[in-house]
Amino acid sequence: MGFVYSEITLKNVNDQIMAKNGNIKDEDVRTVTVNALADTGAYTLVINEDIREKLGLEITGKRHRKLADGKRSLYDTAGPLEICWKDRRFIMEALIIPDGENTLLGALPLEGLDLIVDPVKQELTGAHGEEMLYYV
User: What is the pTM for the complete model shown?
Assistant: First the structure.
């Protein structure tokens, strides 16, 4: 199976709240569209420092993580941000790999967006068709 990339849009949730309250204009909500690698071996959403700065996300904490190359380190987390894929939305924090080359869409955001990786078509698709399934 090859790599599966998909376009996602990331939005600063705090900006969205300020726009909803009339403190900033809707067009001033900081947004970035990226071609993300769907990585079922990754745990969370991973972005680099450049994307964090463009979105104006605040550092929310630090997490010890092990990367695919075996490197263990303490990495910043930032957020909250909204991940948008087609008509689906999910809010979470992101792990910041300062010089990371790819945005990784890991297992948590894939589950939150109710998406699966289709290995035959090499694309993301809704796990339950057009309608998102919510477990309550």
Answer: 0.90
